[in-house]
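Justification of resources, computational component.

The compute hours requested in this renewal are based largely on the per-chain cost of generating structure records like the one below. Each record pairs the submitted sequence with a full structure-token output. That output is archived, and it is also reused by downstream analysis tasks.
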Amino acid sequence: MALFWHHVFATGLAKNEHILSASIQLEMFRRNGMSDMRTILLDLSRDPAMIFWLDNNENHNGEPNENYGRELLELFSLGVGNYTEIDIKNAARAFTGWTFAQSPPLYPHGYYASEFLFDADDHDNGEKEFLGHRGNLDGGDIIDIIVEQRSCARFVSRHLYNFFVADEPQVPTWNDLPPLDPALIEDMSDAFLDSDGQIKPVLRVMFNSDSFREARFKKVKSPVELVLGVLKMVSTHDYFHPGLAKYAESVMVVMGQKLLDPPTVEGWHTGKEWIDGGNLTERVNFAVGEVGDGSSPGIKQIVDRMIESDSLTSHGSFVDAALDAMGPIDVEDPTREALVQFAARSEGDDDRSRAVRMIRLIVATPEYQYA
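The structure output for this chain reads:
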């Protein structure tokens, strides 16, 4: 859920340049990411990393900065088409004075946390109108009104569906393109509204749906999902030790995803946009390279399972044993036939070498790119 909210509430370290603030934001997502939308948005609005990222520290009484107010509505909660420019302006006014206390300089003592600060003297106490509500509204009131909207329920539900079930079109098109599964989105939205914006009931509806059960091959793995899946399989990094950082700092970056540094406030474009000619080559080469010669602990275990299952008795059972030991992984008929053909050609080779080469072929299949 921390990764999910980091994608939705994209905040870039390239601008903030304060590691501790980024870390604290992620801990906030871990702490409240399955609570309720009101708490999540309120904590987000008080988060120094987000305040600086979207310039709310420059949002002053009489001189409002609309960056945070606009993105709160467009990309964080409601989506395009569910508010007006007046709503943006008044949301910005409501968040005036929501800033942070500057932390001490980095040198010579290292990082100190920045703390949220409400500057009452810099807050606009004038009357405001927002989504049909009028009064001396502050940021908390704006969030309360947002969470009551069905458009918020749909927006959050569609994001969850895109992350966990199947690839949706990109967020800016949601006002024009309907959801892939309108019925499920409505059921999830009902759960959101009936529970006053709680996230767990929405997840419960989604994970118990037929759509989730039948979602195989409907999502392209993001680079972080692909990389971590491979690393867990080969088991070379089951604890922290030197060498782990390269996967975030270089491997995933060349695949198009640098954590803590999204390309824009929209986050990353997902689905098939993760894959082009260059990215696909990087993804396949990475997976094949990590499998390597089969000497890693995880691959040794997979090969042992294959051999112990007596799967070498037939070409088909050899393929099925490899797919089962690696996942299980389902592949479509043309892919399975190609793997069976390899099993036939390699018959008579050393068993362990043959099994490792089968594993390398499987991680290079189209199906392995999907979740």
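The two ends are 17 Å apart (CA to CA). Residues 324 and 330 are 8 Å apart (CA to CA).
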